[in-house]
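Session log. Operator J.P. requested a structure for one protein chain; no other inputs attached. Running the standard single-chain path with token output.
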Amino acid sequence: MIAPAIIALLGLMVAFGRVTDADGAVDAAAHAAARAASLERDATSAQTQARAAADDSLSGDGVTCQSTDVTVDTSGYSLDVGQAATVSATVSCTARLSDIGLPGLPGAKTLTATFTSPIDTYRGRQ
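Structure written below.
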């Protein structure tokens, strides 16, 4: 009688651990993406490098997402040199939970994190 309850509890612990790990990895990926984008000189390169940095960060943390979305706000690159500007990266990752097999547990959970990084005020921008 207690065995099903223990199995359900273990399944919930696995699900909670997977979501917690993925949440930390998504936060780190958003940080890496924003930082990589802020080091570039133009918006196109910033978007490319941000996506690459987010993918590298997630794979380095061992997180496999069903789907990953990286959105980069590069509007700061349109400001003139000498004006304070930032670049923001938002990373979304859908973590799979369906393989845990607990009734009532959603099949996936989407985790999202955003980070903003300053662009060097006096560095040339294109």
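Operator note: The chain is about 45% helix and 25% strand.
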